[in-house]
Write a structure and sequence with these properties.
Blueprint lengths: L1 H31 L6 H21 L7 H23 L9 H23 L4 E2 L2 H5 L2 E4 L2 E4 H23 L1 H11 L1 H6 L4 H23 L4 E2 L3 H16 L4 H21 L4 H15 L14
Antiparallel strand pairs: 1-4, 2-3
Helix pairs in contact: 1-6, 1-9, 1-10, 1-11, 2-3, 2-4, 2-9, 2-10, 3-9, 6-7, 10-11, 10-12, 11-12
């Protein structure tokens, strides 16, 4: 019974983190048809900016409560600045090119962002434990969990709800759905597709940075964390269906619970459990569980 509870809580917490870290990636692909490898760089920028900002703030002896506000602020700054620089400075000249070429371009951007983080913050690790420590622990069936884990779960639910509401209940969201459905028809109807690309890329970059910023209080922020997250985020969106927000939710839950089950039942399987699940899903649904329908060009 305790093992089942531990799997449920750990799986939900890991799934929430995975969703926050991958939803921006699937959003960008759904709208722009770009597999954005630079997403890992946005995650790393958010983590470094958050850890640095919290550390700088806490050095002055300020109350820890305001440190929670630093997390979304630093994520917004990192996501908007880096996202705008890449989309306006590079990607807008590449729209309409082959998808493989776009992958190579975003991979180059990822390598540049990795070096940018080292130039700004160096190669030392950053630790911003104060927000996680401030929320204490919560006992569930005698098992202690950090309160910060449940904060991440709440933020993931809030982001998922806001994305759904924005896409289905706002004029901009409905226009964006038209762009997703057919880019050429959208342009013929007078929709400024390039503007929507920019907005989408900034939102996706900010969500990636937010995933890193929220993770910073729970980990030691070191060089290379961006490469790790892009692999797991890619597994999530492939399982759920590339470009699908509901797919990102289901994919994150599947990966989260699979990893938690392997950790608690057979720890050596943790190394390959995510990829085993991905292979099993793709064997049955080659394009993922909720893959977007592709229109046939005549």
């Amino acid at each position: 019974m305790l093992t089942a509870i531990a799997i449920a809580v750990d799986g939900l917490g890991f799934a929430a983190w995975l969703f926050l870290s991958s939803v921006g990636l699937t959003l960008i692909y759904g709208v722009m048809r770009i597999l954005n490898i630079a997403h890992g760089g946005f995650y790393a920028l958010g983590a470094y900016a958050s850890a640095w900002g919290i550390g700088l703030y806490m050095q002055t002896g300020n109350p820890v409560g305001f440190a929670f506000l630093i997390i979304p602020v630093m994520a917004l700054i990192a996501g908007v600045v880096a996202g705008l620089a890449i989309e306006r400075g590079v990607l807008r000249f590449m729209y309409g090119r082959d998808e493989v070429l776009m992958v190579l371009v975003t991979y180059a951007m990822f390598l540049i962002l990795e070096d940018v983080t080292k130039l700004i913050w160096g190669t030392d690790s950053y630790v911003a434990w104060q927000p996680a420590y401030a929320l204490g622990t919560i006992d569930i069936a005698g098992i202690p969990y950090t309160g910060y884990k449940f904060l991440i779960i709440g933020v993931a639910m809030l982001c998922g709800g806001l994305l759904y509401w924005g896409l289905t209940h706002t004029r901009v969201g409905k226009l964006l759905l038209v762009v997703i459905e057919d880019r050429e028809v959208s342009m013929a109807l007078g929709i400024n597709v390039t503007k929507f690309f920019t907005i989408t890329f900034l939102i996706g970059a900010t969500l990636g940075a937010l995933g890193g910023a929220l993770t910073a209080p729970e980990i030691s922020v070191v060089p290379g964390i961006g490469a790790e997250i892009i692999v797991m985020a890619f597994a999530v969106i492939v399982i759920g269906g590339m470009g699908s927000i509901p797919g990102a939710i289901i994919g994150a839950l599947i990966v989260g619970f699979a990893r938690a089950a392997s950790v608690h039942i057979y720890p050596p399987a943790e190394l390959f459990s995510i990829y085993l699940v991905m292979a099993a899903v793709l064997a049955v649904k080659p394009y993922g569980l909720f893959a977007l329908a592709e229109g046939r060009k005549i």
